[in-house]
Amino acid sequence: MNNLVFQKNRDLDLIALGRLAVDLNANEMGPMEETSTFSKYLGGSPANICIAVSRLGLKSGFIGRVADDQFGRFIINYLKDSGIDYSNVTVDESGAKTGLTFTEIKSPTDCSILMYRYNAVDLKFDICDVKEEYIKRSKAILISGTALAASPSREAVFAAVELARKHKTVVFFDIDYRPYTWKSVEETAIYYSLLAERCDVIIGTREEFDMLEMISDPDNEDDDVTANKWFDYNAKIMVIKHGKEGSYAYTAEGKKYTGAVFPVIPVKTFGAGDSYAGGFIYGLMQGYDPGKAMELGAASASIVVSSHSCSDAMPDINKIHRFIKQYDGEKSYDVKNI
Ligand SMILES: Nc1ncnc2c1ncn2[C@@H]1O[C@H](COP(=O)(O)OP(=O)(O)OP(=O)(O)O)[C@@H](O)[C@H]1O
Ligand SMILES: O=C(O)C[C@@H](O)[C@H](O)C(=O)CO
Q1: Which residues are listed as membrane-spanning (predicted)?
Q2: pLDDT at 329
Q3: pLDDT tens digits for range 185-198
Q4: Using CA positions, which residue lies closest to atom 9 of ligand 2?
Q5: Strand order in the sheet with 110-116
Q6: Ligand 2 atom 4 nearest Cα
Q7: pLDDT confidence of residue 108
Q8: HSE-up of residue 62 (Cα within 13 Å, Cβ side)
């Protein structure tokens, strides 16, 4: 059990908002100056998470914009083929372009991403694209932080969150800090904090929370302090991720969970956060406690970092259970009152 209340009689489980993009992952290992071919996958952190929960069996939708070009059509077709409702994905006519993420795999543990986001179409979705009738159809919405980086996307996100709260739709906030999209870290901290105050579940790395708290509590690096700060607002569950060291989840009722980790030899390091979020959200929406949900997230992350792609590699629930079984069955996760 967990402390989230998902409304019944909703035909969608999760609506994700914001970035629909394209990943172009290098096929050769080494510096991108020397690689020559790339594999194309659906990309964009909220899109990856939406794919993840859909592949796990949740009914999902998306609010966002795509470019009126081949990449836009690729994205729409991918959502359609994945069974994701795309009725609220708008084809933008402004000439804005699909965000591209080129990924460099110098070694399995030394990877970096190069983002082309000039005039990115995902930041063009606006308040008119956010329909109250659509939001009220869903048990939860997912906000990915980069959507706060510029207007009109920024205002659209705040409008969606207000409509979600009005209809008791749970709000998940995956911080997903991507520096190249923002003017300054101070601006980021302000908008992320304003949003975090309104969300039910906040997921981020230690570094992302450090950035988020840089104005209000610049010296804090303590996870327990961070978690308790947001329970003073609307948060019910907080998750703080620490890479392959694992993660911690906290509940407003004072429980702290130490997440399982499934060590693997990675193909590439990125994609862990989106796959972890997908498994975690799925677990909470099944009614599991945060520890069990974290286990699904961690297993999903290990599977995805062992793969070349992010979206394509998102596992179904059977694959996750088979994977966990390799590690001598259910991983125990530590839980204690703090
Ligand atoms: N190399 C790894 N091996 C096994 N599990 C991992 C690895 N990296 C991450 N994980 C799992 O995935 C979770 C999320 O990863 P991380 O903390 O790196 O988030 P992130 O920085 O948002 O990910 P990303 O690199 O995709 O942006 C971790 O808490 C851990 O459970
Ligand atoms: O969020 C992005 O635009 C990049 C992702 O699509 C990419 O798969 C990644 O970096 C996941 O962590």
Answers
A1: none
A2: 57
A3: 999 999 999 999 99
A4: 271
A5: 38-43, 21-26, 100-107, 110-116
A6: 44
A7: 87
A8: 34
Contact by Cβ (8 Å): 278, 300: yes
Q: Which ligand is nearest to the CA of 205?
A: 1
Atom 6 in ligand 1: residue holding the nearest Cα = 244
In a domain, 5, yes or no: no
User: Which ligand number lies closest to the CA of residue 243?
Assistant: 1
Q: What is the number of structural domains in the chain?
A: 1
Distance CA 88, CA 13 (A): 15
Predicted confidence at residue 327, as pLDDT, reads 84
Ligand 2 touching residue 48 (CB < 6 A) = yes
Residue of 176, 241, 269, 270 to test ligand 1 pocket, by largest number of atoms within 8 Å of CB: 241
Tens-place pLDDT, residues 98-149? 999 999 999 988 999 999 999 999 999 999 999 999 999 999 999 999 999 9
CA 61 to ligand 2 centroid distance, Å: 19
Provide the pLDDT for residue 337.
Answer: 73
CB of residue 153 inside a 6 A radius of ligand 1: no
Q: Which residues contact 336 (CB under 8 A, 6 or more apart)?
A: 255, 256
The reply to whether ligand 2 has any atom less than 6 angstroms from the CB of 273 is yes
Please indicate, yes or no, if residue 25 is contained in any of the structural domains: no
Residue 252 belongs to what domain range? 12-20+44-97+122-330
What pLDDT does residue 332 have? 56
The answer to ipTM > 0.90 is yes
| Residue 89 belongs to a domain | yes
- Of 250, 278, 209, nearest to 334 by C-alpha is 250
Task: Pick the ligand that lies closest to the CA of residue 18.
Answer: 2
> Is the residue at 227 inside a domain?
yes
> Which residue owns the Cα nearest ligand 1 atom 16?
243
CATH number at residue 75: 3.40.1190.20
Query: Alpha helix (H) ranges present in 8-116?
Result: 45-55, 70-81
* pLDDT (average), residues 31-51: 97
Kindly state if the Cβ of 266 falls inside 6 Å of ligand 1.
yes
